[in-house]
Design goal:
single chain; 80% helix
Length: 147
């Protein structure tokens, strides 16, 4: 019986610790960030036709950005694979860095032209509000939100 008491205490302790960690991991998590596209559509109060056009633009934009991001990741993998090499070919490293920079430039241009397309479906008032949202987002870029 005494041997079993120690086992029961150990099991109870493990159950309590498991519960504690479950609450800590899942209980404190913040809700996921909202979709920026839905934020813009809501803020601009798009009508049904605008929402449909916006969703089509948004889907196409996300597909393009994901493709470029995959290419950037592959290039970065190639770049950082060079770390394990005993001798580094500077030309190869510079070429990979240049190609990564070019892909990032493409992403910035795609984002710019995406918002130019979004402006086309906006009314004049919505266009002004969109410009304000974009300027605010640009100025806040890189700053952390308070918790």
């Amino acid at each position: 019986m005494k041997k079993n008491i120690l086992l029961y205490i150990l099991i109870a302790f493990l159950i309590v610790m498991n519960g504690f960690f479950m609450v800590k991991i899942f209980g404190d998590s913040r809700p996921p960030k909202g979709n920026p596209g839905m934020f813009i559509a809501k803020e601009l109060q798009f009508n049904e036709a605008q929402t449909k056009a916006f969703n089509e633009l948004n889907d196409e934009h996300h597909d393009e950005m994901r493709a470029i991001s995959r290419e950037v990741k592959a290039l970065k993998d190639q770049l950082f694979d060079q770390i394990s090499e005993t001798s580094v070919n500077t030309d190869t490293v510079n070429d990979l860095a240049r190609r990564i920079g070019e892909k990032e430039r493409q992403k910035d241009l795609k984002l710019f032209y995406h918002f130019k397309e979004v402006q086309k479906i906006c009314t004049d008032e919505q266009r002004e509000r969109l410009n304000t949202i974009l300027k605010d987002a640009l100025h806040k870029h890189g700053r952390k939100r308070p918790k």
